[in-house]
Amino acid sequence: MFHQVITKSSDELLNRASVALKRKADYWLNRYFTGNSLDYKQIFGITLPIFVDTSFIVLMGILNTAMISSSGVAAISAVSTVDSLNVFILSVFIAVATGGTVIVAQYKGSGNRDMVCRSAAQAILAVAVVALLVSFVVMIFHEQTLNLLFGSVEEDVLRLAAIYLIGSCISFPFLAVEQAAAGVLRGVGETKASLIISLIMNLSYFLLNLVFIKGFDMGVYGLAISLIAARAIGAAAAFVYLIKYNQTLDFAAKRLLKADFGLLKKILFIGLPFAAEQMFFNGGKLLTQTFIVQLGTLAVTANAIAGSISMLLQIGGNTLSVAIVTVVGMCVGSRDIQDARKFIRSFLGFSVLLFVLLAAVILPLFPLLMALYASPDEIADTIFLLVLLISVAQPFLWAPSFVLPAALRAAGDSKFTSAASLATMWLFRIGLGYLLGIPFGMGIAGIWLAMVAEWGVRGLIFAWRFKGDKWYRHKLV
Question: Which of 156, 210, 329, 445 is 20 to 30 A removed from 191 (C-alpha atoms)?
C-alpha cells in the first residue's frame, strides 16, 4: 500500500513537471518563433526537414570522401581539387534557383496561387538552361581549365582530376533540375518533399559508391559514374513528384516549353547578382585552393579533410540559411516587416546554440573521424588546429556572415549583399589569406585564419544593413 502511494505520488510529480516544461517551452517558442505571418509550428515544419536533409548530405559527403581516400592521397587530392572548381560552377545555377525560391515564397506570402505555379515552372526552366550552357563550356575547355588553375599538382592528381571533372559536368544538368525543384518546393514550405527527393539522390550516390569504389575498386572512375547516375535519379524523382503527386504548384511539363520573360526577369533580378557574387566568391575560394596547391599534396589533403569536418559543424547554420529564405520571403510577401525582423533575430540566436552544441558533440569524436578518413599521421595535428579554429569562431561570426545575408536576399536586397560579400572576400580571404599563407609562411593555418577574419567583417556590414530599412524596400511581387 505504501509502495503504491509513493509510486502514484512520483507519477503525479512527473506529470506536473512535464506539463510545466511543455508550457515553458511553448512560451519561449511563441515568444521568438511565432508572429502574425507564421507560428513556431510552421517555422519548425519548414526547418526540421531541411536540417535532416543537410545532415544527410554532409554525412554522405564525409562517407564518400572517406571511401575515395582509401584509393590513395592522389585520388582524394584530385577530388578535392575538382570539388573546389565544382563549387564555383554549381554556385551559378544554385544562385538562379535561389532567385526562384525567393519569388515563389513571396507570391506564396501574398496569396497569389496562379503566380506561384507560373514562377515555379520558370525557375526550373531558367536553372536547367543555365546548367546546360555552363556544363557544355566547361567540358570543352576542361583540360585548359585544370592546367591553368592546378597545373602545378602532380601528374597523377591532374589525370584523375580530368576524369572527375568530366563526370561532374555530365551530371550538372540533372543536379540543376533537382536543385531547382527543391528550391520551389521550399518556397511554398513543402520542405518534406524536397527532403525526400534529396534523400533519394544522396542515398543512391552513397550506395553506388559502395558498389563502384569499394566493390569494384574503380576509384575516381567509380565516383564519376556514381555521381552521374545518382543525380539523374534525383532529377527523375523531382519530375515524378511535381507531375504526379504535388498539388500546390500545379506543375505540367508543357509549362517548361514557354518562357515568361516577365517572371524570368524577376527571378534573375535576385539570381543574377547572387550568381555573380557566388562566382566571384567561389572563384576566390578557387584561387585560395591554388595557394594551397603550392604547399604540396599533403596540404591539399589536410584542407580537404578539415573542410569536410567543418561541414559537420555547419549543419545547423546551413539549415537556417536555407530555411530563412522561405520564412522571410513569406513575411515580406505579406508585407509584415516586423515579423521578418523578429524571425531574423531569432534565427541568428538559434544558430549560436546549434554551433555550440555541434562543436561539443563533434570535437570529442575527432580521433574517430581521423580513423575514418585514413589520413596520413603527419597532417593530423594540422587538421585538428583548423577544426579547433573554426569551432571557436563559428558560433559568433558565421551566422551574421551567412544567415543574415540570406535573409536580406529573401527580401530582395540582392545587389548590396553581393557587393559586400565580394569586397570582403577579395580583401580578406584572398588578399590577407595569400599574405599570411605564403609570404608570412603560416601555410594553411594562415589561409584559414584569413577566412575567419572575413566572416567577422562581413557580419558587421550585414548587421549595419539590417538595422536600417533599405533592405526591405524592394518590391518584387
Answer: 210
8 A C-beta contact, residue 253 and residue 109: no
201-219: pLDDT as tens digits: 988 988 998 898 888 878 8
Break the chain into its structural domains and give their ranges: 35-472
230 contact partners, CB below 8 Å, separation of at least 6: 171, 201, 202, 204, 205, 208
Is the separation of the CB atoms in 150 and 215 below 8 Å?
Answer: no
d(C-alpha 397, C-alpha 378), whole Å: 30
CA separation for the pair 103, 474 (Å, rounded): 12
DSSP, residue by residue, 353-385: HHHHHHHHHHGGGHHHHHHHHT--GGGHHHHHH
- Structure confidence at residue 477 (pLDDT): 58
Q: With a threshold of 0.85, does the pTM exceed it? A: no
The amino acid that residue 48 corresponds to is: L
Find where cell 539523374 sits. 232
pLDDT, tens digit (0-9, with 9 covering 90-100), for 19-77: 777 788 888 888 888 888 788 888 888 788 778 777 877 777 677 666 766 666 677 77
The C-alpha atoms of residue 22 and residue 465 are separated, in whole angstroms, by 37
Cell of 58: 554532409
Q: How far is it, in rounded angstroms, from Cα 162 to Cα 78?
A: 8
- Which grid coordinates belong to 196? 525526400
CA 393 to chain centre: 19
| 156 grid coordinates | 597523377
Among residues 170, 433, 157, 138, which one has the least CA distance to residue 279?
Answer: 138
Burial class (CB in 10 A: 0-12, 13-18, 19+), 323: buried
For residues 218 and 163, what is the distance between their CA atoms, to the nearest angstrom?
12
Angle between helices 113-140 and 142-150 (to 10 degrees): 80
Read off the amino acid at residue 456.
Answer: G
